[in-house]
Design goal:
Elements lengths: L5 E3 H15 L1 H11 L17 E4 H38 L1 H4 L4 H4 L3 H20 L3 E6 L2 E6 L16 H15 L5 E5 L8 E5 L6
Antiparallel strand pairs: 1-2, 3-4, 4-6, 5-6
């Protein structure tokens, strides 16, 4: 079933900016030409830097799929990690649910509580952006985020996880909330044959 829901223009713009900074404007032009979505990069003008509706979920998936075909996993990993981090920066400044976590009451909470709160609220943002179910939970092995019907890896086949955008997004959310760096690892991915895309966060921060 086609997913006609639209994502905010900002999502497309952040991917565009990261492609340009890493590979140059010609690479971005090639990507949109190959996807047939030149209207989102019309005359070299990037999409608006706001939350106005733009590409559909299916079109976003097409951009991810074609970008891996053209630039490969090695080329896309740093691009999508950066775009995910930049997305968190935007919502940290403009989303009330995340902005509320910057208050004094939040800073004195135990680290475990901070992590659970920020993952839950960040997952809610992701769910609203992508119109895909997001689930967060924790076990003795760590914290987890699961995405059903993830648009990041549709049509991609790999022997490992390729959803780098949410890895960057959640990594930055944890760093901002705790002041520490936590490893975010995709342990299951539809591209590698799984039913859902699952991300694992260890209980211990990285040195």
């Amino acid at each position: 079933m086609a997913r006609e829901q639209q994502v905010p223009s900002l999502v497309i713009r952040l991917i565009c900016e990261s492609v340009i900074d890493n590979l140059g404007p010609k690479s971005l032009h090639l990507l949109f030409t190959q996807t047939g979505l030149q209207r989102y990069y019309d005359g070299g003008e990037l999409p608006p830097d706001d939350e106005s509706p733009s590409a559909t979920i299916d079109e976003l998936s097409t951009i991810f799929t074609m970008s891996f075909q053209i630039f490969g996993d090695k080329g896309m990993k740093p691009i999508l990690l950066r775009a995910g981090r930049d997305m968190l920066h935007h919502f940290r400044a403009h989303n009330k649910a995340l902005a509320a976590l910057a208050g004094t009451a939040f800073t004195v909470l135990p680290t475990d509580t901070k992590i659970k709160l920020v993952l839950s609220r960040a997952a809610k943002i992701g769910e609203e952006l992508l119109h895909s179910p997001h689930r967060t939970y924790d076990t003795p092995e760590g914290y987890f985020v699961e995405i059903t019907n993830s648009p990041y890896c549709v049509g991609i086949t790999s022997d490992h996880g390729v959803c780098y955008f949410p890895v960057g997004f959640y990594s930055e959310a944890l760093r901002w909330a705790t002041g520490q760096t936590y490893a975010v690892t995709e342990t299951a991915c539809v591209a590698a044959g799984a039913q859902v895309c699952r991300f694992h966060i260890t209980h211990q921060e990285q040195p």
